[in-house]
Recover the amino acids of this structure.
């Protein structure tokens, strides 16, 4: 659900820091402590302690360092999220993602790598290359799981 992040506002920081609407272009570094929604074009680094939402009109290129990242638009670059990254339907993401939880919903496009953090010193980090182009319309036949192949 594209607005599922609203249901979690009780457990996460619900303080809105701001919005960047369509028509705004930003280049550089952006830091935020609360929830921020971007629906504009941006190139650079975003650091977020709260929730970062890249809206349907977002076209972001660069690096995201944050807690929880929700993508509904376009992103190219690197994401380092402490809690989770969600890629919603119609989102297009080409990135290297470092997070303990990656959610890729049907109808989205993800081309990149997912790096899961180490659970302990005895375990080795896992990197999974994923190339997925999902149909925006449901397939009437049974769906097949994405092909995942661990990389070393």
């Amino acid at each position: 659900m594209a607005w599922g992040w609203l249901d979690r506002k009780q457990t996460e920081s619900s303080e809105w820091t701001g919005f960047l609407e369509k028509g705004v272009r930003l280049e550089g570094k952006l830091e935020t402590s609360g929830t921020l929604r971007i629906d504009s074009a941006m190139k650079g680094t975003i650091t977020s302690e709260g929730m970062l939402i890249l809206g349907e009109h977002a076209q972001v290129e660069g690096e995201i360092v944050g807690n929880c990242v929700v993508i509904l638009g376009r992103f190219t670059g690197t994401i380092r999220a402490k809690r989770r990254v969600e890629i919603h339907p119609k989102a297009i993401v080409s990135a290297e993602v470092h997070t303990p939880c990656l959610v890729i919903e049907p109808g989205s496009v993800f081309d990149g790598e997912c790096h899961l953090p180490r659970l302990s010193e005895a375990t080795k980090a896992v990197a999974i290359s994923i190339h997925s182009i999902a149909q925006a319309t449901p397939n009437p036949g049974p769906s097949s799981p994405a092909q995942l192949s661990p990389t070393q």
